[in-house]
């Protein structure tokens, strides 16, 4: 069977990823969620002309020269506006955020005044409109603050709240089930023997999925027995999940049981081998009965992480209605070391940023690229991408990189 190119595999995976629908949530539960309807401001901000500085509100024509004196007739503070009017020869002490009194058209900051009792002398001439934030300078009621399809960041929540919006319509979070396989696998902290392997990839894969907006349920570790594997797969497919992610058992060895177990449960595996390093034994498909998307990741932890970054993260985003390109989001960089020619698989090498050249990162591949070695994955800043059949390249030549998730 010919290996499928990475871009073709990703396009095929995303072709069946329809948005899951919407729900309304309070603003304090909306961080990281994707809007399914625009956010419309319910009020104008600022709601009135307000002072941008601490100082004195006055008529600019009364302080056209340094040395002008005015009588202080009141005070305007945030939340406690002065209710009278500024008349000729008078001024109102004003604080940042306070409403500009009627009749005033300028602010002289307190550093440019001298005060003796109720008399203020300005040491700098006033300028009409200076240090005043006009009503609606930020936004007006009825304006669109954020469009549908936008993923809410921390700073977006402040904007939505300022618009007097407390509930937002967002995409339902995809429910993702994780299922691991392997007689050798044990949980961290269980005093594993030398013949056992501590399961690690489920933690990185789960973190990537949650970071993309999913709810993640860990369904545990299955032994390498067909009956147990089929039972576990059947339960996962019947569990109401949008995505089932398996780790391990995705190759073609005697103990690689995931593919036959999925097929036995009616999952059409559209892809089983990808022209990718690390991660060739990757498969995905869909259950016709439950409409569950299935992604089978390799067992090696580096391969699982790279494949989850390339395929699972875009799938989760697409299920929330985000526009996702059907190709990895690569960036330009330059090599800090020579690299060898590549073979037929697209290679994602762990690499570190060692500087910058012509405003792009200068990257150097790490010395060990084994798909089971986690230290260099944790150390890496980016993945250095080598296209299929790319020729050898010298230090200083352009290259492409994929950013790791954080």
Keywords, please?
406 residues; alpha/beta; Molybdenum Cofactor Biosythetic Enzyme, Chain A; Molybdopterin biosynthesis moea protein, domain 2; Molybdopterin biosynthesis moeA protein, domain 3; 4 domains; six-stranded mixed sheet; 7 helices; 26 strands; MoeA-like; Molybdopterin molybdenumtransferase; MoaB/Mog_dom; molybdenum cofactor biosynthesis; EC 2.10.1.1
What order do the helices and strands come in, and which of them pair?
Layout: H1 6-14, E1 22-26, E2 39-40, E3 50-51, E4 55-58, E5 69-76, E6 90-94, E7 106-109, E8 113-116, E9 119-122, E10 132-133, E11 144-146, H2 154-162, E12 167-171, E13 175-181, E14 185-186, E15 197-198, H3 201-211, E16 215-222, H4 226-237, E17 243-247, H5 258-264, E18 267-271, E19 276-277, E20 283-287, E21 293-297, H6 301-319, E22 331-335, E23 346-357, E24 360-365, H7 375-379, E25 382-386, E26 398-403
Parallel strand pairs: 5-6, 13-16, 13-17, 14-15, 17-21, 19-23, 22-24
Antiparallel strand pairs: 1-12, 2-11, 3-10, 4-6, 4-7, 5-9, 8-9, 18-20, 20-21, 22-26, 23-24, 23-25, 25-26
Helix pairs in contact: 3-6, 4-5
